[in-house]
Description:
By secondary structure, this protein is mainly α. The chain has one domain (3-227). 67% of the residues lie in helices and 4% in strands. The chain has helices spanning 3-20, 30-50, 59-78, 82-103, 109-127, 129-134, 140-143, 161-176, 181-202, 209-217, 224-229, and strands at 145-149, 155-160. It has a two-stranded antiparallel ribbon.
Amino acid sequence: MTVPRQLGVVYGATLLWLLVVPALPEIAKADVATLAAGIPALILLTGCALVLIPLRNATAALILLALGGGMLGAGLTEVGADAGADITKALLASSVGFLLVRVLSTPAVVIAVPLLISAIDIFSVLSGPSAALMRDESGVSDFLTFTIPAFGGGRVGALGISDIIFCAFFAGCAWRYGLRRRSTTVALLLALPAALILAVATGRGVAALPFLSVALLLPNLDLLPRLLSTGSGRRPDGEIASVGD
Length: 245
C-alpha cells in the first residue's frame, strides 16, 4: 500500500470515528462510556502519527504537512468542527514530531528527552501549565488539544497536542537509532489507552507523556548502552540499522 493510501485509510478511519461516535446512543455507565469512546480514538490518533513514519526523512514534505495541518486545524477549531480539527492537528503534531528527530540528531535524546518531558508533564498535570490551560477560555486551549467525543454527544476528555508530537518523535527515534521498531510501535499504540484506563480507575488526571516514554524505553532497555557508546552503523540517511524484533 502506498503512503498516500495509508494516510487516507488511517486519517479517514479516524475522522469517521470522531464523526460517528456523537451520533451513537449514549452509554449510561460513565466509566464504560469513557473507555468505549476514548480507547479507539486514542489508538487512531496514535496511528495518525505512526502512519507518517515512511516520510520521516522527507523534511520538505513534513514542513508542508505541518503548515497545512496547522492552518486547517486553526480554521476548523475556530468554527467548531472538532472532528476535522482533530485530524488536521494530528497531521501538524505528527509532522512536527518527526521534524524534531531531524533537529535533535544525537542518540542521547533517546534517553534524555523521555525523562525530561515525563517530569515536566507530571508537574504540569498536577499544578502547572496544563492545569491553567484547562481554565483558559481564550480558544488557545482548544487548538492545543484534541477533543475526544462521547457517545450521544459531548466529550469524554481531551488529549494534549504535545502527546502526539512526542509519540511521533519517539517513533522517529526508534527508526533513526536502530531500536526495535515493531515492539516500539505496538507499545506506543497501547500507551495512551493505558493512561486513560489508569485515569478512569483512579478518578484522577494522569500525565500521558510518561506512558509514551515508557513505550519507547522499555522495549529497548538492553539496546540503550550500545546506542550511547557507539555511533557506528549509520547509513547515508543518518539512521542506524535496526536490530529487528
